[in-house]
Amino acid sequence: MATDKELSDFLENVERRAFKQAVYAVRKDEAALDIVQDAMIKLAEKYGDKPADELPLLFQRILQNTIHDFFRREKVRTTWVSLFSSMGRDNSSQEDFDLLESYESEIGSEAAESSADKVEREQTLALIDAEVQKLPTRQREAFLMRYWQDMDVAETAAAMGCSEGSVKTHCSRATHALAQALRAKGISL
């Protein structure tokens, strides 16, 4: 049984990494905050009485399920919005409409700092972040759990609901794709 202190310490330690993982998945800071908060609440309410060593796997599973729930809700919401919005729109104007031209991505850039090294590091990290976001969902999940969350293969497999071999395959493909993409941009790790 995890004590309240152990649960609180666990949630405090996992919060930033879980947020980053959720941002990689949904690409919206506000939604990622909601997802992490929901996952933490679910863990505390339903599994707070579990032993402390079981909390990381349970939390990862809850976090992944919460991310999947977000995408399900978004799909339903998008379907209804597009159905209703197409009712009131003139069909001739739809031909000229291009979603990619009207979509503005959220860029959370900070003001340039005086240190050239810091700017270069931030640019490099931004390139790496962009390449991680381009990975397929399962590869990104496996990569982040293994190398960001520092989970072993068995824990990652349990959290993702797949075999250890699948985790190894996803991680291998992710690291090769990242290395190739970053080398093409002049970054060698």
Indicate the topology.
Layout: H1 4-26, H2 29-47, H3 55-87, H4 91-96, H5 99-102, H6 116-134, H7 137-148, H8 153-160, H9 164-184
Helix pairs in contact: 1-2, 1-3, 1-7, 2-3, 3-8, 6-9, 7-8, 7-9, 8-9
Structure description:
The protein is mainly alpha-helical and 189 residues long. It contains nine helices and no strands. Helix 1 (4-26) packs antiparallel against helix 2 (29-47). The relative contact order is 0.10.
Total helical segments? 9
Cα distance, first to last residue?
A: 42 Å
Order of helices and strands: HHHHHHHHH
Rg from Cα: 20 Å
Question: Main β-sheet: number of strands, strand sense, barrel status?
Answer: none
Strand fraction equals under 5%
Q: Please, what is the average pLDDT? A: 80
Per the principal axes of the C-alpha atoms, what is the gross shape?
Answer: globular
Would you tell me the structural class of the helices and strands?
mainly alpha
Helix percent band? over 70%
Can you tell me the residue ranges where pLDDT is under 50 for at least 5 consecutive residues?
86-92, 102-114
| Count of individual beta strands | 0
Short description:
With 189 residues, the protein is an all-alpha fold. It is built from nine helices and no strands.
Highlighted features:
mainly alpha, 9 helices
